[in-house]
Amino acid sequence: MDIRFLGAAREVTGSCHLVRAGDRRLLVDCGLIQGAPADEARNRSPFAFDPDDIDAVVLTHAHLDHSGRLPLLVRAGYRGPIYTHRATRDLCQIMLRDAAALNEKDAEHENRRRLRQGKRLVEPLYTRSDAEKAIRQFQTLDYDIEREILPGIRVCLQDAGHILGSAIVELWLEENGLRRKLVISGDLGHAGAPILRNPEVVSEADLVVLESTYGDREHRSWEATLAELGEVFHEARRSEGNVLIPAFAVGRSQELLYFLKRHGKEWDIGHWTVFLDSPMAIEATEVYARHWKLFNTETNRRRKKDGDTFDMPNLHFSRTAAQSMAINRVRAGAIIIAGSGMCTGGRIRHHFKHNLWREQCHVIFAGFQAQGTLGRQIVDGAKTVKLWDENIRVAAQIHTVGGLSAHAGQSGLIDWYRHFERHPTVALVHGEPGPMESLARRLHLLHATVLMPQPNESIDLSALTRKPGK
Question: Residue 348 pairs with which residues in a beta bridge?
Answer without folding.
Answer: none
